[in-house]
Structure formats: structure tokens, C-alpha cells
Design brief:
two-stranded parallel ribbon
């Protein structure tokens, strides 16, 4: 679960179709069984120079208040999250390392491992974390995919473009 937060749904940086993606994420969590659920949270509350960072030159200031950084996953599923990663940039290396460790642990017990990315925004944080996972986890028995209807981009066009990039980087899009 990548950055399913208020600022990306109704806040200062709302993703196009974010409400539909959130509904689909909650439906996915209720319908399917996952061995582990991992979430990232964008957080800029403690950054001293965030307002002058490269990110703020192009993207509105976001996730810098408790309200804006609030996670919007249904509480029923929120309690099922195995690990949270607070990040201050598009990508979380800690999240990728955690996923790689899970794959290494399960490698001897499973013929097939699937990592599914969902969240907001497809064209920024979802694609960055999915590509980093694909770059790091290179085992042929690990499938990395993005569930398109459980994601939303900054615009519909950017969402679609990110999904095309994902496919070209050997990430399945479903």
C-alpha cells in the first residue's frame, strides 16, 4: 500500500480518480488473502528545509500536517498491516529491503512469490517503489505487479503513462 493518504485523496495534491482507487483497494483487501500487507506513508512534518527542497519546486507542499498525512485505509484492514515505512521522498529503500528479505525468507518454501503494488500516486511514488523493488528483487520466481484499478495518478494521462513504463520495466500491470 503506497501512500494512501488524505492529501492524495482530498487534500492539497489529490490524485485523479483517487476515491475510486481507494474503494478498489478496500475491496481488494476484503476479497483477497495476502501473506503480508506493507504500507508506506509520505511524511514531511519533521523536515526542516522541506519548503526549499527540490520536490517542493514542482509539487505542492503535502503531508506536512497530521491531517494531510493521515492514512485513509479502512480501519478493518488497517490493523492487518504488518509493517509501515515512513518516507520523505518518492521511494523507500527500507520498504524494498523489507520486501527483499521476505522474498529471501520464502524462497525455499515457495515456488512463486507475488508482490502487488497499489496506492497513490501511480506516476510518482507507486512507480518509483515498484521499479526499485524490481531492480532489487531479480529472482525469476518473484512477480512484481501493479494493480491498475487500485491506483490513481496525478492525472489520468500520467497514471496511464506510468503503467506503460512499469510494463517496459518488467512489472506486470493488472
Amino acid at each position: 500500500l503506497i501512500d494512501v493518504q488524505k492529501d492524495f485523496i482530498d487534500g492539497v495534491l489529490p490524485a485523479a480518480n483517487a476515491h475510486a482507487a481507494l474503494d478498489n483497494i478496500n475491496k481488494l483487501l476484503s476479497d483477497e488473502s495476502f501473506d503480508k500487507i506493507v504500507a508506506s506513508v509520505d511524511n514531511h512534518m519533521n523536515e526542516v528545509k522541506y519548503e526549499t527542497s527540490f520536490e517542493c519546486l514542482s509539487i505542492p507542499i503535502h503531508c506536512n500536517t497530521y491531517d494531510g498525512a493521515e492514512t485513509c485505509i479502512d480501519n478493518t484492514y488497517f490493523n492487518s498491516i504488518n509493517a509501515f515505512f515512513i518516507k520523505d521522498s518518492f521511494c523507500s529503500q527500507e520498504l524494498t529491503n523489507y520486501l527483499a528479505a521476505i522474498c529471501a525468507e520464502q524462497f525455499w518454501h515457495s515456488e512463486y512469490i507475488e508482490i502487488t503494488f497499489v496506492g497513490l500516486c501511480t506516476d510518482i511514488c507507486v512507480i518509483a517503489n515498484a521499479i526499485n523493488a524490481r531492480r532489487t528483487i531479480r529472482d525469476s520466481n518473484v512477480t512484481i505487479k501493479i494493480k491498475a484499478n487500485c491506483c490513481a495518478g496525478t492525472t489520468v494521462e500520467n497514471h496511464e503513462a506510468a503503467l506503460r513504463v512499469a510494463k517496459s520495466c518488467l512489472i506486470e500491470v493488472e
